[in-house]
Every structure is written in C-alpha cells, then in structure tokens.
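Please decode residue identities from the backbone states below.
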C-alpha cells in the first residue's frame, strides 16, 4: 500500500489508517454555522470563476486554434481552478457530520453506500460508442472519518477494488481491478 509522506510515495500498511477522534460538539456547531454562512459566498465565487474561465476561453479560442500547447495549458488551468472551487474546504462541517460525529455505524454505512454506487458504475456493461465505465474512484475523508481508511480499503478490496497511491488525510483513491482485465 502507498501513501504520500512529505511529498514522497512510501509503502505503508493501512492498519495505521484508523478513525479520527470525535471532535467536540462546540467545535462542530461553530464550524457548521460558519459553513452555512460561508456556503453562499463559496457558490457565488464558484460561479464567478466558471464564468471567468469560460469568457477567457472564448476570447483565447483564436490563439488555441494555432497553438496546441496553449490549449493544453489552458485546459490544465481550468481543471485546477474548477477543482478547487467545486470541492468544499476541509474545515466545513455538513449537517450529517455534525449529527453523526462519533457514530462508527453511520460511517460504515456511508462507506458501504459509496462503494456500492461506485461498484455499480464500474461494473456496468460496456456499450459501444458510449463513454466507458469508471475505473477509478476517490472516497473523500468526510465519508470515512469515523471508521478510518483501513475499513475503506478492506470493504473496497472485498468488492474488487485496488488501492491507488492515496493521502488518507484527504481521500482514498481506488482502482477497479476488473477494468484492466482482458475483455472477451
């Protein structure tokens, strides 16, 4: 198994990926209130970033028609900008987190539900001339916070997923092993 440590991939055992301790109730309430107040601003900022990248993209279409390297660079820029805006900051607390903090059974059910959804997508039959089923997924930390990453790896392995290099403090990346199997 792999994980990032100080910017380097290192081999590790997932047994160390245990559940985080339950946060104090006052901290959850404070963060939830801050999330409720912050969310409209975050959504508005996301819309502004999306519109700005779309406008810049339309204006630079002439340059992209001539230069393929510019187009690739702009695509990477748009992906990074939109990825940062479309994910919640790590300090945000959702209602389900505030309500079920410390409840390991809830987090197990949440992980199992996410894995079942990803497994259904990945194992869907391939349709010619359509997009291919997903072969990789990412389970966010807020889904497994109460049970730890080791449980995610165990449950995913039982369903046919393989662990990819991951940062358990942020998310766990999985690969659908059947995607690399030869098609008959």
């Amino acid at each position: 198994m792999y994980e990032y440590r100080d910017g380097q991939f290192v081999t590790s055992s997932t047994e160390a990926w245990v559940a985080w301790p339950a946060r104090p109730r006052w901290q959850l309430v404070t963060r939830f209130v801050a999330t409720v107040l912050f969310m409209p601003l975050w959504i508005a900022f996301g819309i502004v970033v999306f519109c700005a990248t779309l406008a810049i993209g339309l204006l630079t279409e002439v340059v992209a028609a001539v230069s393929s390297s510019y187009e690739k660079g702009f695509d990477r820029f748009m992906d990074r900008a939109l990825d940062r805006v479309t994910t919640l900051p790590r300090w945000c607390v959702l209602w389900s987190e505030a309500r079920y903090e410390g409840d390991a059974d809830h987090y197990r059910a949440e992980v199992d539900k996410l894995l079942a959804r990803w497994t259904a997508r990945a194992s869907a039959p391939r349709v010619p001339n359509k997009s291919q089923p997903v072969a990789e997924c990412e389970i966010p930390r807020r889904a497994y916070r109460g049970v730890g990453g080791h449980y995610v790896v165990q449950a995913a392995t039982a369903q046919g997923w393989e662990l990819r290099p991951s940062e358990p403090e942020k998310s766990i990346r999985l690969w659908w092993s059947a995607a690399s199997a030869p098609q008959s």
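Observation: The chain has a mean pLDDT of 80.
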